Amino acid sequence: MYPKYQKRNTPAFTAASYFALAAGIFLYCIGVYNADWELNVKGYYLLCMFLIIITCIVTQKVVRDNNEDKELRLDNPKHRMRNTIAFTGMAFAGLVIGFAMFFIGLFNADFDLNVKGYYIAVMLLIAYSSIGVQKVTRDNAEDKEILENLNQSNNSHYNG
Questions:
Q1: Residue 136 near residue 9, CB atoms below 8 Å
Q2: How far is CA 150 from the centre of its chain?
Q3: Is the pLDDT of residue 158 over 60?
């Protein structure tokens, strides 16, 4: 008998990850839409949101790739790293720049403290959930590939 493979994410966790990201983006966009700001200010805050989402996803991917590559290099010292030091640095720099733009803009904005708190809380939800969505998406794709390979090898053993 072959061991059963345990998927890393339940469907409920996958759905919750996507829901949290969608809810965060929706709440942030509702706040920006309803704000009494000029269009260029609304664009600035939307740009900050998208920059943070993208750089959170890229940074999570880079960190995970680098950790996996370090483990593979223990077995095979000639293993080629998937990310260069420059790309890793750019991922972290983009994340820092995105959050710096957001917090500098928020600090200099003439908002009530509760409004600033709302935007900070929603941005943290968006950042955290975008990392979760990237992790879930990658895990599910790898799990699907592993399960397909296990099914093919099991079928070849039964048919052979």
A1: yes
A2: 28
A3: yes
Distance CA 75, CA 89 (A): 26
- Give the burial class of 112: count Cβ atoms within 10 A of its Cβ; 0-12 exposed, 13-18 middle, 19 or more buried: exposed
Asked if 133 and 17 touch (Cβ cutoff 8 Å), the reply is yes
pTM for the whole structure: 0.86
Eight-class DSSP state of 159: H
Per the CB < 8 A criterion, the answer to whether 45 and 126 are in contact is no
CA torsion sign for 112, 44, 96, 130 is positive
For the chain, give the number of residues.
Answer: 160
Give the confidence band of 107 by pLDDT, cuts at 50, 70, 90. Answer: very high
Contacts of residue 11, defined as CB under 8 A and 6 or more positions apart, other chains included, come to none
State yes or no: pLDDT of 156 exceeds 90.
no
Q: Is 141 exposed, middle or buried (0-12, 13-18, 19+ CB in 10 A)?
A: exposed
Mean of pLDDT values over 139-146: 91
